[in-house]
Amino acid sequence: MAQDSLIHSSEDIDLLLSWSSDDCDRLILIEAKAFGSFANKQLTSKLKRLESIFGFQGDNFERVRPTFVLTGFSAPVKLRTEAWPPWALADGMPRFLRMPPPSEPQFMVSRCDESGVPAALGKHWRYVKR
User: How does pLDDT run across 22-45, given as a tens digit for each residue?
Assistant: First the structure.
Protein backbone atom coordinates (compact mmCIF):
# COMPACT_ATOMS: atom_id res chain seq x y z
CA MET A 1 0.00 0.00 0.00
CA ALA A 2 1.26 3.47 -0.88
CA GLN A 3 0.66 4.87 2.61
CA ASP A 4 2.89 2.19 4.21
CA SER A 5 5.69 3.13 1.79
CA LEU A 6 5.45 6.74 2.92
CA ILE A 7 5.77 5.85 6.59
CA HIS A 8 8.02 2.78 6.82
CA SER A 9 11.23 3.70 5.04
CA SER A 10 14.40 5.61 5.74
CA GLU A 11 15.08 6.12 2.02
CA ASP A 12 14.60 9.66 0.89
CA ILE A 13 14.69 11.94 -2.11
CA ASP A 14 17.34 14.65 -2.09
CA LEU A 15 15.16 17.34 -3.66
CA LEU A 16 11.45 17.44 -4.42
CA LEU A 17 9.96 20.02 -6.77
CA SER A 18 6.21 20.30 -7.12
CA TRP A 19 3.74 22.50 -8.94
CA SER A 20 0.19 22.33 -10.21
CA SER A 21 -1.03 23.05 -13.70
CA ASP A 22 -4.52 22.86 -15.16
CA ASP A 23 -4.29 19.15 -15.98
CA CYS A 24 -2.02 17.67 -13.28
CA ASP A 25 0.22 18.06 -10.25
CA ARG A 26 3.89 17.60 -11.18
CA LEU A 27 6.39 15.99 -8.80
CA ILE A 28 10.05 16.05 -9.79
CA LEU A 29 12.01 13.68 -7.55
CA ILE A 30 15.74 14.44 -7.71
CA GLU A 31 18.48 12.09 -6.52
CA ALA A 32 21.86 13.83 -6.22
CA LYS A 33 25.41 12.50 -5.95
CA ALA A 34 28.26 14.94 -5.57
CA PHE A 35 31.40 12.90 -5.01
CA GLY A 36 30.07 9.36 -4.91
CA SER A 37 28.59 7.32 -7.72
CA PHE A 38 25.08 6.11 -8.35
CA ALA A 39 24.80 2.50 -7.18
CA ASN A 40 22.49 -0.02 -8.83
CA LYS A 41 21.47 -1.57 -5.50
CA GLN A 42 20.51 1.77 -3.95
CA LEU A 43 18.63 3.06 -7.01
CA THR A 44 16.80 -0.23 -7.59
CA SER A 45 15.63 -0.21 -3.97
CA LYS A 46 14.65 3.46 -4.12
CA LEU A 47 12.73 3.06 -7.39
CA LYS A 48 10.95 -0.04 -6.08
CA ARG A 49 9.79 1.98 -3.09
CA LEU A 50 8.72 4.92 -5.27
CA GLU A 51 6.87 2.50 -7.55
CA SER A 52 4.95 1.22 -4.51
CA ILE A 53 3.83 4.79 -3.90
CA PHE A 54 3.15 6.04 -7.44
CA GLY A 55 2.50 2.77 -9.29
CA PHE A 56 4.32 1.16 -12.20
CA GLN A 57 2.84 3.63 -14.68
CA GLY A 58 2.92 6.52 -12.18
CA ASP A 59 -0.87 6.66 -12.08
CA ASN A 60 -1.76 5.67 -8.50
CA PHE A 61 -2.96 9.23 -7.84
CA GLU A 62 -5.34 10.75 -10.34
CA ARG A 63 -3.64 14.13 -10.89
CA VAL A 64 -0.06 13.36 -9.78
CA ARG A 65 2.62 12.92 -12.47
CA PRO A 66 5.98 11.84 -10.97
CA THR A 67 9.31 12.29 -12.75
CA PHE A 68 12.64 10.92 -11.49
CA VAL A 69 15.91 12.77 -12.20
CA LEU A 70 19.53 12.03 -11.32
CA THR A 71 21.98 14.88 -10.88
CA GLY A 72 25.69 15.02 -10.16
CA PHE A 73 29.11 16.13 -11.36
CA SER A 74 29.46 13.16 -13.68
CA ALA A 75 26.91 11.05 -15.52
CA PRO A 76 26.04 7.63 -14.13
CA VAL A 77 27.55 4.59 -15.83
CA LYS A 78 26.41 0.99 -16.06
CA LEU A 79 23.04 1.60 -14.42
CA ARG A 80 20.62 -1.31 -14.64
CA THR A 81 17.24 0.24 -15.25
CA GLU A 82 15.19 -2.71 -16.51
CA ALA A 83 13.31 -2.92 -13.17
CA TRP A 84 12.62 0.83 -13.04
CA PRO A 85 9.06 2.02 -13.68
CA PRO A 86 8.59 3.77 -17.05
CA TRP A 87 7.91 7.17 -15.47
CA ALA A 88 11.44 7.11 -13.99
CA LEU A 89 12.98 6.99 -17.48
CA ALA A 90 12.96 9.13 -20.62
CA ASP A 91 13.10 7.10 -23.83
CA GLY A 92 14.32 4.12 -21.78
CA MET A 93 17.22 6.04 -20.19
CA PRO A 94 17.63 7.74 -16.80
CA ARG A 95 17.17 11.50 -16.88
CA PHE A 96 20.43 13.17 -15.88
CA LEU A 97 21.16 16.80 -15.10
CA ARG A 98 24.86 17.58 -14.88
CA MET A 99 25.91 19.87 -12.02
CA PRO A 100 28.95 22.08 -12.54
CA PRO A 101 31.81 21.02 -10.24
CA PRO A 102 32.41 23.27 -7.24
CA SER A 103 35.32 25.63 -6.90
CA GLU A 104 37.77 25.22 -4.03
CA PRO A 105 37.42 24.75 -1.14
CA GLN A 106 35.05 21.79 -1.05
CA PHE A 107 33.20 20.72 2.07
CA MET A 108 31.18 17.67 3.02
CA VAL A 109 28.67 16.88 5.75
CA SER A 110 29.80 14.37 8.36
CA ARG A 111 28.23 12.75 11.43
CA CYS A 112 29.71 13.62 14.81
CA ASP A 113 28.97 13.54 18.52
CA GLU A 114 27.74 16.60 20.41
CA SER A 115 31.35 17.82 20.81
CA GLY A 116 31.99 17.72 17.06
CA VAL A 117 34.18 14.59 17.22
CA PRO A 118 33.61 12.35 14.16
CA ALA A 119 31.27 9.45 15.02
CA ALA A 120 29.72 7.01 12.52
CA LEU A 121 26.58 6.75 14.65
CA GLY A 122 26.62 10.34 15.88
CA LYS A 123 23.37 12.22 16.23
CA HIS A 124 24.87 15.56 15.21
CA TRP A 125 26.24 16.88 11.94
CA ARG A 126 29.12 19.12 10.96
CA TYR A 127 30.76 20.11 7.72
CA VAL A 128 34.43 19.47 7.10
CA LYS A 129 36.82 20.34 4.31
CA ARG A 130 36.98 17.55 1.77
Answer: 999 999 999 999 878 899 999 999
- Give the angle 35-38-41 at the CA atoms, nearest 5°: 140
Shared-domain flag, residues 106 and 79: no
121 shares a domain with 62:
no
* Residue 54 near residue 13, CB atoms below 8 Å: no
Query: 129: domain range?
Result: 101-130
| pTM of model > 0.85 | no
Tell me phi and psi for residue 9, to 5 degrees. Answer: -150, 145
Please state, in angstroms and as integers, the Cα–Cα distance from residue 72 to each residue in 14, 32, 35, 46, 88, following that order: 12, 6, 8, 17, 17
Is the separation of the CB atoms in 14 and 51 below 8 Å? Answer: no
